[in-house]
Structure prediction request, 766 residues.
Amino acid sequence: MSEVTQFEPKIIAYVCNWCTYLGADLAGTTRLEYPANVRIVRLPCTGRIDFNLLIKAFEVGADAVLVSGCHPGDCHYTTGNYHARRRWMLFRDLLDTLGFDLRRIHFTWISAAEGRKWQEQITRITEETRKLGPYRELYQKNGFRLPAPSPPPPKPPEPAKPTMAAQEQQLRETCTRLLTDGTVQVVIGYGAGVPVFIRRAEDVGKLVWNAGCQANLTTYLKRREVKRLGKAAVVVKGCDERGLVILEKESQMDRAALRVLGMACDGMGQPKCDDCNVRQPRFADEIIGKAAAPPPEAPHAAALDDLMLKSPAERMSFWAQEFERCVKCYACRQVCPLCYCERCIVDKNLPVAIDTSATSNGNFAWHITRAFHLAGRCVGCGECTRACPAGIPLKLLNLTLAHAAEKHFGYQAGMDPKAEPLIGSYALTDKEDFIR
Amino acid sequence: MSEVLSKAGLRVLVKEWVAQGKTIAGPVQTKAGLVLYGRLDSADDVVLEGFVRPVNSAKEFVFPRREVLCRYQAKGSKVELTNGEVDVAPQILLAVRPCDAAALPILDHVFNWDFRDEAYNRRRAATTVVSLACTAHDESCFCTSVGLGPQAERGSDAMLLDLGDEYELRCLTDKGRALFAGRTQTSERTATPSLGPEPRFSPERIKRFVDEQFASPYWQEATLACLGCGACAYTCPTCHCFDIVDEGNTSHGERARNWDSCQFSQFTLHASGHNPRPDQGSRQRQRVLHKFSIYPEKFGEILCTGCGNCTRNCPEGQGMLTLLAGIDHV
Prediction:
């Protein structure tokens, strides 16, 4: 008996039913030989291939994954592959930040007539993967840690600035008017330490405006308990307001039925404000105050830059250590104004898409999904990071996607109310330099 | 007369425990501004000063966030079942806060009530608790409102009290005495009693309110800010609800027990689609009811040690304390 010495990689290919599957079929009927390392999973369309499937493939031991579909212009459903192209472009950047080995992730266009291309691509991918060896780095810690940032001095809430006191006064007066003349039934605003829901003009004194007003209150617009209270006014900062643009675009709220009270803000002096570039509300019905300092030109993301200087294995080690602390309390999800699904994918169990256990599989799958469901949508309010009791810098994942959206598509979520949602639209000119 | 142990002596002792292969958990500076209870790789990792309390709770070490109950493996036409973690190494919970230590005897009730929970008891029996009395508190602490305090000895096998350059050591059980035998000196110095936070509410009044005012609009009113995450329950030393999941495929897999929280909307969702606790008000009411009425009626004590983590870790600053203190003003 001969010893088995050659590593045989496992490759999962998610292929579309109409082109690549038939291409593979053609390769078979024309007796073209190619390595038997590939397991084909046939799906209706590349536009229908959920990114969770890719993660799942690696979880169960794939050494490489291929996604393949119709050439541009050939989609059976007209545009499915254009949507896929855009989505995978963003998704690759997210996986890169997380430290996935992108050499193991392949994308091809193979038509029903291209049996030979299927043969060539599978041969190439198998050989390349064989050289890379088994994918052992997945979710592994290799001892690498990002050097601890110099400890931020604990910041007690700064005393309210004089301008803030004037804004607070004006806010209270505005709310008195809105509640008295019946424009709104409830004002969602900041109270002392906890958000308040003011329904009577005599309670407006409970509204505050100070350096502790960090929360993004637009998240309450999704809460059934709050919707029941009637027509609402919501207090927003410039950063929070961007989320309203997205919510309106996604038909999640009736903008005409909402009164937006925009507070000019010079930053709350907290880490979450470091990357903020909108300090003056733009679309609010009432704008209170004027931001003194212009926002920083380019969003500051030193932590992300530092991380990207590391090797993929080191990045994965970093995230493995961060996610290890995750207890799956879902504070990141609940606090996000744009996580509004009635039933989150992680709560679905027929079938289980994401393990609910706080294991490396469950944690990576969850945080990848959370971040990617916000691709082209996250407005960078940083609430996920602020809410996390385990101190996981979730914002870095969102920031990755925000950078990718800007780099590839010149898109900034929630800045231009006229812009089409990034995911859900496509352009014939979208780049495809990662597709073969 | 008291027993004392120098601070350097404690470090030496911890080094010895590590060398003996004992598992030790205690407060660790996980990253800047974040102290969590975690496993100590070396005696230098433990942080003993400069923070009020870790962000998580020490329950993790007797009731982990995920416990494998059994594993299955298909062998031909048969299925082979094996137990989860059978051997649990002796572990020392070092420098846990009195509010974490006090939670353990409270949890013992529910894991030994109608069913003796093997997984829990195995870890509990292997655990020695060395608490460190508090010298500081913050605005979220409320141990004194639930009958405990900064030097409460409940649940500890031994307690350390800071005397500046050394600790007063109170060995409270045989386990505690065994751990420190021959390592302490006698001294005249004893720690001064510390008062802790001012009481914020009366548990009796809370119980009366939840029993009599089930339908009060207060529950809806006071919980509007709650977003329904599990940050409070998952950092609570006494919350103990769990969910059982099967993870694996047709050939092999695991059955595991994971933390769950009554604050999730799915917690009580029926297969029919009906949800008996349809809103956050009823979920928060359940939490208070369980802690201040149901548990005391069944086991004779409050399911809360006043650590304040629910309030400290609430993203919106809501937490139990706001809710409970508010009851006094209804």
Notes: The longest strand of chain A covers residues 11-16. The longest helix of chain A spans residues 80-98. Chain A touches chain B through 43 residues (CB under 8 Å).
